[in-house]
Amino acid sequence: MRRREFIAAWPALLVLPGIGFAQPQSAAVRTVAWFGVGHADDASPYLDALRARLRELGWIEGRNLVLKTFWAIGRPDMDSIAPLILAAQPDLIICQELLVYALLPLKPQMPVVFGFSGDPVQGNLVQSLARPNTRYTGMSYLAIDLIGKRLEFLKEWLPQTSHVAILAHPQHPGEDRERRATQEAGAQLGMAVSYFPFRETAEFEAQFTAIRNAKCDGLVVFPDSTMFTLTQRIAEIALAARLPSVSGWTPFARNGLLLSYGPNIRQIYRGLAAYADAILRGARPEELPVQLPTTFELALNLRTARALGLTPPTALLARADEVIE
């Protein structure tokens, strides 16, 4: 029902003022706060994508826009930075991933636009995708419909795959839906699916012992910000265990997993600029539907493939949007 409600409401977002290439109507300088994952000195392709699209929409830093950046890693860092953002009194906050939960208890009075990898309804950010009815709106990376396709790509490359392990962080909103979808897709492809959750970061390596004992021959890593911080270590352990691995965002493949298929995250952050544009012109966030992913990409890591002694099928290689050598 949520996806159908969203599709029905999406045309309303398209006709709101500011969605498109029109120039801002006001000469007043507006302030936008970016709350991003990482450090101030780190390059961020997502902030770069947001900035580029804001410029295309006519919001020029130093002319009619001040973009203040705030960065955090981990819960204590998030909680200490969030009050500083509110103290800066921006007109709008654009928030990356789970950092939005540092803002929730502070009850910001300004709109908050999020890029969020989970289910924003289950995560209590909005009341529905079609009509958020809160100060929060934005875009979700969660693409349940793509989960089966990830397993299909793995099966196409490795037809003998018969038992895949799910490595997951169960606190992530929407994780239960991902698990059901993976189990259903695995059954359709004739693969057994076993579930290996971990709640604390220190626990995840122990799950690989259980995965090996279960004699799994494939690994599905559910994508979220916690899992992403662990990706390189996950890739190392999976390689040592000779486990072909798949996840949902291209950066997972860049960090060593065998393949990924999912939303183009840079495009999502370009999309957030349209929300910012609409809100700065007077649109109400509670009336702006949450958008689901619309552009997807397949990435193959040939370095990992060679280390596993695998060669990708020609047809799969031809379909890849990114090949990591």
Give a quick precis of the structure.
The protein has 13 helices and twelve strands. The protein has 325 residues and is α/β, with parallel strands linked by helices.
Topology:
Blueprint: H1 2-14, E1 30-37, H2 45-56, E2 65-72, H3 75-87, E3 92-96, H4 100-103, E4 112-116, E5 136-140, H5 147-157, E6 163-168, H6 175-188, E7 192-197, H7 204-213, E8 218-221, H8 225-229, H9 231-240, E9 245-247, H10 250-254, E10 259-263, H11 265-280, E11 296-301, H12 302-307, H13 314-319, E12 322-324
Parallel strand pairs: 1-2, 1-3, 3-4, 4-5, 6-7, 6-8, 8-9, 9-10, 11-12
Antiparallel strand pairs: 10-11
Report on the structure:
Helix 6 links the parallel strand 6 and strand 7 (192-197). This protein has 325 residues and is of the alpha/beta class. The chain has 2 domains: 2-142 and 264-294, 3-Layer(aba) Sandwich (Rossmann fold); 144-263 and 297-324, Response regulator (Rossmann fold, 3-Layer(aba) Sandwich), CATH 3.40.50. It starts with a helix and ends with a strand. It is elongated. Mean pLDDT is 89; it is low at 1-26. 38% of the residues lie in helices and 20% in strands.
